[in-house]
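@channel sequence for tomorrow's demo:
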Amino acid sequence: MLWNDKGEFVKLKKINKIQSLFNNNITVMKAFELREIGFSSRNIKEMVAAGMLERIKHGYYLLSEKAHEISDILIAVKLIPQGVVCLFTAIEYYELSTVNPSFVCIALPRSVNVPTLPQSGYIKIYRMADKHFKLGISETELNGAKLRIYDIEKVVCDCFKYDKEIEKSIALEVLKNYISKGNCNIQKLLEYAKIMGKKKVMLPYVEAML
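structure tokens (generated this afternoon):
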């Protein structure tokens, strides 16, 4: 048994069990998921008090010893499974700019309520009209976990769509780097731009860079 500074204990068997779960590409677990596999609310509190679990927000936990290995992106997508990685975070993922965001950008449709977020404030929510939210969603893997992120053409178009959030110089840098990749899909890019009402804005820049 492991004792914490309050004289409480956590059974090593349960510690080993939860460690094996988090080692299996699980980043964050909900309280009810822990209870379903045999951890009582008291067990969870004991493990938090002992420094084994870290509480991200009410009802969400990660293994403390794994906290430094888990990116903010993976935590964000676990907390907001219906969201999609977008804007600055997606720009960084596709290496379209040198911008280094201090928060994770997650898109949600306007029809969905924003969940309670961690108080640390490293997640920023962007509300999108349903037809724009659904456009260009793709799935990939990051450190063994599934990640919903917009495809690269949608990310470029978003830079022009959300011009109040992204400076024009960054949007142009993103477009230039996208075109310079060589495997860009201009037809798809302009189709997206048309749907998002930004084709007239983007087309002159695209033609000038080709």
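heads up for whoever presents: The first helix runs from residue 12 to 22.
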